[in-house]
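Q: I'm writing up a methods section and want to include an example of the input and output format. Could you take the sequence below and give the corresponding predicted C-alpha cells, formatted cleanly so I can copy it straight into the document?
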Amino acid sequence: MEPIEIFPGPTASLDSPTAQKLLLGLHRALSFSDLWTALQRLFEALVPHDTMVMSVNYIDWRQETTSLRLTSANSRVLADRHAAWLATKEGSKFLQLFIERNKGIPCYRHSQAMPNVQSISRTPYYKHYMIPAGWRYSAHLLLWRGSEVETSFAFRRRSDQGDFSDHEMALLRALHPHVATAFERTRLFEGEHRRRNLLEQYYRAKPEAVILLDWNFEVLYSSQEAIALCVAWNLGPEKARFYTPKTMFSLPPEILRECKRIKPSWEQRRTETSDLERPAIAAEVKGERAGFSATITVRREGGSSLTKPLFVIRLLWTTEEKRAKGGLGRKLGSLTPAERNLAKLVCTGLSNKEIAARLRRTEGSVKVQLSGVFQKLRVGSRTKLIAALQ
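A: Here is the clean output for your methods example:
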C-alpha cells in the first residue's frame, strides 16, 4: 500500500465559542492531571465517541509498552492489560504497517488503513479486540517524537454511531498542534517542578544557608540555616535568640536591593545572547551588621525558555568567635540547626530536664534527639560530646 497524504480531506475551523473556550482550558493546564481533564472535555465536545484511551510515553509503541494508559471518565469500556495485549497481538498486522508507511501522520481512521473497507470487520484485530467490546469504528491521534509515536489517543465508536466523518478528521488535524503544544508545555513545567524538588532535597541534606527566589523575588525555598541567619541578620544575633526563626523570617533588605539591582543585567543579556549562551550572574552583599554577607547568583535551572531564572542566595555569618572555633564549626556542620542548638546547651552543662524546660519540650524528645546527635558525631556520652566540641 502506498503512503497516504499526511493531511488529506477538508480543513476545519476552531473559531466557534465552544472550541475557543475548550482550547483556553487546554492551554491553561500546567499539571498532567489538569491536562488530562482538559483533553477529555475537548474531545468529548468536538469528536464524540463511545470510548477514548490515551497511551502516554510509549517505551515501545509497536509492543504497546507505555508508561501510562488512561480511559476517559465517560468511556463505556475501560482499558485493561488484556485489552492492551490483544491490541498488541492483533494490531501489529493491521495497524503498525500502516503507521510505519505514514511516519508523522497526525491522525487517521481505520477505514484509511485498508483498501477494502468492507473487509475490516473480518480481520483478527476486529474479531478478537474491537467487536467483543462493542466497537465498529476507530480513529487515532498520534503525537510523535522523531520517527517514533510517543503518545496516542484512540477513539472508539459503536455501529450505531457511524464512522468518523471527514469533517471530524479535519477537526482532529486542526487540534493536533494544540494538543502537541500542551503536552510539551506540561512536560517542561513538570520537569522544572521536579528539578526544583530535587534541588530542595539537596539543600535540605546539606547544612547550608541557601535561599531560592523566583523572578519576582518571592521565596521558593529557604533552608532552616538560612531562615535562622536572616533573622540574626535583621535583628542582631543577641535579639534573634528570643524569637522562633520561622515567625520572624524575612529577606534582609540589603539582599533584596542587590537582587533588584542585578535583575536588569540579566534582562539586558537576554537581548544580546540566547538562553543557552547566557552565563550566570553573580554578586556579593555585605550586611550592615558586621560578619554578615551573602553571594547572589542569577541562573536558569533547566533549559526551558518558558521558565524564568532563579536567584540563588548563600548566606554567611563570620565572627571572631567562629574563626577561633573553626573545628567546632566543622563538627556542628553535620547537624541540623535544632541539633546544633541542643549540642550547645549540653556543652553548657545543662541536664536533659533543664534543656527540655528551656526548649519547652518533653524530656523524652530531648533524649531521642540527643541520641541522633551522638550518632552523627560518633560519640557515646555527654562527656565525649562536650570533649568533641571543645
